[in-house]
């Protein structure tokens, strides 16, 4: 049961669990739905310090084990099938079962696949079909003969991804004369402090979305590092301006309601969590709202992660949508959707260099004061394909 408290309260009565530990958390409490909702969610979610400005992580995922046929194969042909070169071919070892996704024909691999040659026994317990050029084959298990020896060993390694922490600095200052002047609009130093914090967090927000990973003058004593943002780091990018036909559009930039459903099933919720955050531009939000009125019945999820979201429930998963205020300001983002799976995203800051206010940075002879906010941080993607960037959605057919 919550403890009752009588009388006026002061800051000293709040424990460290209630008071923000740094200015980044303070900003989150001040403006959870403000100009930096991505950072607001990250500050309440997963954060971790790093002791090096370059931080790395291992990404591991199960292989698809799919192959593509190179050249049609007649139904009477036995022995070998030529396939496109690909790393997944190595999983077609002697004893593996391979299935033609188009016809359903089951084949038994009789020799380890070497480069582009697949050696099989065709028509396992069924009818033999012609194999079309470009047909998709996939490994569907293993069948060993009685008394056979162990199969060829297969393994796969995780890939290594990395990013940098970037140094963000936002300075503000006032003259001592202005500080001593009685203004009806209030204390200018306090006002500048608040506005500078908003600009500082906005800078970090934009870098974590639009930044490009790079290190300039890396071998020098004073390198400049840039953190890679989501848009320039993700491989899972859908451009409706060019790929409209796949998503129910008849013209460039068009995506239908059925097309969006297909995308959610085939792409957005193919990997990762069944609940994801979607940051949208205003025109994308308008089109989503039209779909929602017809079928999805959107409901406001109050205070989720400190940010108000609108939840669209689908069979594939729940899409929690937030209209990103900066997407209205940045050219090209009004028709965009950035879908983020937060369990696979992490805010990384250099040890002792999370957002802080550094006071009195002015020169000794300055007749005024100068302060600055400083943060050295970066964004870590624990996985890549769980996130999706959709751009160029300009119309509904």
Number of helices: 7
What is the strand content? 25-35%
Top CATH class of the largest domain: Alpha Beta
CATH topology of the largest domain: phage-related protein like fold
Give the number of domains: 2
Instruction: Kindly provide the radius of gyration, computed on alpha-carbon positions and rounded to a whole number of angstroms.
Output: 28 Å
Give the total of beta strands: 22
* Mean of all residue-level pLDDT scores: 84
Overall, the morphology is elongated
Distance between the termini: 54 Å
Present the secondary structure layout.
Layout: H1 23-30, H2 37-44, E1 47-50, E2 54-59, E3 66-68, E4 79-82, E5 96-100, E6 106-114, E7 117-121, E8 136-142, E9 159-164, E10 166-175, H3 176-180, H4 188-210, E11 214-216, E12 224-226, H5 230-233, E13 237-239, H6 257-268, E14 275-280, H7 282-296, E15 299-301, E16 309-313, E17 318-323, E18 337-340, E19 345-350, E20 356-358, E21 368-381, E22 388-391
Parallel strand pairs: 1-19, 13-22, 14-17
Antiparallel strand pairs: 2-9, 3-8, 4-7, 5-6, 5-8, 6-7, 10-21, 11-12, 14-18, 15-16, 16-17, 18-22, 19-21, 20-21
Can you describe what's shown?
With 397 residues, this protein is α+β, with helices and mostly antiparallel strands. The protein folds into 2 domains: 21-60 and 160-397, Alpha-Beta Complex (phage-related protein like fold); 66-142, M1 Pyruvate Kinase, Domain 3. Helix content is 19%, strand content 30%. It contains 7 helices and 22 strands. The protein has helices at 23-30, 37-44, 176-180, 188-210, 230-233, 257-268, 282-296, and strands at residues 47-50, 54-59, 66-68, 79-82, 96-100, 106-114, 117-121, 136-142, 159-164, 166-175, 214-216, 224-226, 237-239, 275-280, 299-301, 309-313, 318-323, 337-340, 345-350, 356-358, 368-381, 388-391. The strands form 5 sheets. It has a 7-stranded mixed sheet, covered by helices on one side. α1 crosses α2 (37-44). Residues 1-20 have low confidence and may be disordered.
């Amino acid at each position: 049961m919550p403890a009752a408290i009588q009388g006026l309260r002061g800051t000293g009565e709040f424990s460290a669990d209630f008071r923000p530990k740094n200015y980044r958390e303070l900003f989150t409490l001040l403006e959870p739905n403000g100009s930096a909702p991505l950072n607001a969610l990250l500050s309440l979610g997963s954060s971790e310090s790093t002791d090096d400005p370059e931080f790395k992580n291992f990404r591991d995922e199960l292989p698809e084990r799919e192959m593509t046929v190179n050249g049609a194969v007649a139904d009477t042909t036995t022995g070998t099938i030529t396939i496109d070169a690909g790393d997944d071919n190595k999983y077609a070892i002697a004893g593996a079962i391979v299935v033609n996704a188009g016809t359903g024909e089951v084949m038994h691999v009789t020799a380890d696949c070497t480069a582009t040659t697949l050696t099989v026994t065709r028509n396992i317990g069924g009818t033999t079909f012609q194999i079309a050029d470009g047909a998709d084959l996939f490994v569907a298990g293993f069948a060993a003969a009685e008394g056979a020896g162990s199969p060829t060993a297969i393994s796969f390694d995780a890939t290594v991804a990395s990013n940098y922490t970037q140094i963000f600095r936002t300075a503000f200052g006032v003259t001592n004369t202005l500080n001593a002047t009685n203004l009806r609009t209030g204390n200018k130093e306090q006002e500048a402090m608040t506005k500078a914090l908003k600009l500082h967090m906005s800078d970090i927000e934009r870098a974590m979305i639009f930044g490009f990973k790079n290190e300039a003058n890396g071998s020098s004593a004073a390198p400049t590092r840039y953190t890679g943002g989501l848009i320039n780091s993700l491989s899972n990018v859908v451009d409706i301006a060019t790929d409209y036909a796949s998503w129910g559009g008849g013209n460039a930039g068009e995506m239908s309601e059925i097309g969006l459903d297909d995308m959610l099933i085939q792409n957005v919720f193919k990997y990762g969590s069944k609940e994801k955050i979607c940051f949208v531009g205003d025109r994308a939000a308008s089109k989503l709202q039209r779909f929602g009125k017809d079928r999805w019945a959107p409901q406001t999820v109050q205070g989720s992660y400190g940010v108000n979201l609108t939840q669209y429930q689908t069979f594939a998963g729940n899409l929690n949508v937030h209209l990103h205020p900066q997407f209205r300001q940045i050219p090209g983002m009004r028709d965009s959707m950035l879908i983020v799976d937060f369990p696979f995203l992490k805010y990384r800051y250099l040890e002792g260099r999370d957002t802080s206010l550094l006071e009195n940075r002015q020169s000794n002879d300055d007749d005024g004061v100068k302060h600055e906010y400083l943060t050295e941080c970066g964004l870590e993607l624990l996985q890549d394909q769980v996130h999706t960037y959709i751009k160029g959605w300009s119309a509904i057919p």
